Amino acid sequence: MTYQCNSPGRERKGSIAVSSMHNVSNWFSSLKRPKKAKPKQDKVSRSVWDLSLLSNGIKRAQLKDDLCEVVSEMESLDSGEDGKNSNKSKMMSIGRKKFNMDPKKGIEFLIEKGLLQNTPESVAQFLHKGEGLNKTAIGDYLGEKNEFNEKVLQSFVDLHDFTDLILVQALRQFLWSFRLPGEAQKIDRMMECFAKRYCDCQGENNIFENSDTCYVLSFAIIMLNTSLHNPSVKEKPTIDQFINMNRGINQGQDLPRELLVSLYDSIKAEPFKIPEDDGNDLMHTFFNPDKEGWLWKQGGRYKSWKRRWFILNDNCLYYFEYTTDKEPRGIIPLENISIRECQDRQKQFCFELYASGGADFIKACKTDSEGKVVEGKHTVYRMSASSDEERKEWIQRLTQSISHNPFYDMLASRKRKAQLYAKN
């Protein structure tokens, strides 16, 4: 039985598009740590999140302190001991913490308490000021697809003044005000708003025939940043390759060479700074997994079976040697792959992930015996569950996460639109 889900238009929770931008770089950099001594045995199978917090007392203490502070502040408000201004300040502090934990509920709380007006402009100003706000939470809220949030996004972008800034400078300012979410559709909406705003700010000095050109070039710059500064990319793009990649995107015309050279030199000299929120490490990925549990995994080169702790979240499958490990042994982005049941002579209840869509290998990375990050070369990942019921549940959850990467489709479509006039 084969399961496949390759619908490019599906709105999803995952982080597939991020592999085109910052997350792959983050995966590799987060895994490049000294190899740690492993415990001799693993007697527990509690949640990775719980166990990671137990092994990291500082972060757990910080989380408890935040929650206790919220509770104490709310009790203080109820007691009426503080003055009106003090109460307002405390409620704003509570609202910020609520926003960082759940953006939607945080905004609802602030509106309910009269600290924000129920208008896109008021919410956008609050997010743009950003005082005490988690930039990942800001990005998640701005990326939500509903009428109110889309108006907030537009108002948020309009608060940026890109007048007299070259495109790289505008991108640096924009991408520092929040952290891009992982979903391709969210990134598309955000970058479309950015491109329109940038063109409007340039007025008569705008060299782009339309915002589609700005959109395509913006993504070209972001991908150039990844290619030039990601240590896993061995062959760095040259200035001529960057220029050739962007030929004909200005309604069939080429952009000035000196412009592209200046953009290339700026990114080469100084990479983008991606906002990093306090405590926003890899373990946050595993706070609320779609599924987690023990599976037997067959090796690639040597077909031996090893027991691994698997976590499925954000359209990625992670596996660990122990539930207490903070860093995964391997990461498998569930992109352009399929899943099927299979039979094996050594194990029961087997299923496997295999490359689809014309790919030769499954895109993945893992740590080797020396702790170095290496690219996976699997054509198939075969796993064994403890029961047929467990296998079916893993297949169901994985199938829901597997999808074609729509990011490339949207970018290619926008590029074709920008180049359309070359054929007319």
From TrEMBL:
Origin superkingdom: Eukaryota
Name under which the protein is recorded: Cytohesin-1-like
Domain PH: 288-403
GO terms for MF: guanyl-nucleotide exchange factor activity
Matches recorded under Gene3D superfamilies: 1.10.220.20, Arf Nucleotide-binding Site Opener,domain 2 (1.10.1000.11), Pleckstrin-homology domain (PH domain)/Phosphotyrosine-binding domain (PTB) (2.30.29.30)
SUPFAM superfamilies from the UniProt entry: PH domain-like, Sec7 domain
Coiled coil location: none
GO biological process: regulation of ARF protein signal transduction
Ranges of residues in domain SEC7: 81-270
Taxonomic source organism: Rhynchophorus ferrugineus
